[in-house]
């Protein structure tokens, strides 16, 4: 029986959502952070999209956001020439790291002791978070603003992307190991530790490279310009989104397009799989995050599969809330027809 994808819409932001990241799986589930041009990054429960809190303190658009593995710390990169580190449990600001230009990207080491940043001044910086007063280590070599920078190979190496170049750096020697040049602007980059795979998007292309050698593995062509792509943790599927407002799902092995969905009302800027692979999140120019099921119809999070009495209809996964009656569910649905939230969250975590 055919199943219809029913995404969860997470409202709250007032400007385009430009970056998002999941934590690892913790004893309390997993978490999702979003970066937005409204300058107010938000933390949510990863499997439901429920708002937990907003990190208040930036004075400009937030371009990058990340969580450490156990979701105890968050980091954000902003247009106010700063990166900030936050206590993700209390919402308190732990430190502000001043830069000389707009900061676009942040990434924690696995032990959360170091933070990697990159931005418009073309420099990679490594901050020792146990010594916030110390000057950061700097790596130069990029010829245009840095869009993304990630730790890889158990933090022994660094991957970074500027406009049309992806570079691999050795952490110990702070020197460039290898680089990849593209004939058009690189729009996104994702690192998959299991298998050391690098996912790069540029134009309509989704390319996979070895994160160790940068050697090509395979590439797919999408029907529209792609802004972001993410590989399923089990490497079964790939999802991508871009300028035509659609999300595409591909078979990673064959490259076959399996599904495509239009749910956003603007270009999609970022997409990421959850750490358990059960869902993927997308952020858009329309100011919303949406959560999509990897396997449509599976009971998971707020989704509950309800089969219609007439088998000729499409089965529709029902969005439900725990410990609520059918009457309460209908009341919630009528009050929140467009969102799983009743109002824009404004309270600090």
Automatic annotation (TrEMBL):
InterPro entries: WD40/YVTN_repeat-like_dom_sf, WD40_PAC1, WD40_repeat_dom_sf, WD40_rpt. Residues 324-333 have a biased composition (Acidic residues). Residues 334-349 have a biased composition (Polar residues). Pfam families: WD40. One of its GO terms (cellular component) is SMN complex. GO terms for molecular function: kinase activity; RNA binding. Coiled coil: none annotated. This is Serine-threonine kinase receptor-associated protein. It comes from Acinonyx jubatus. The gene is STRAP.
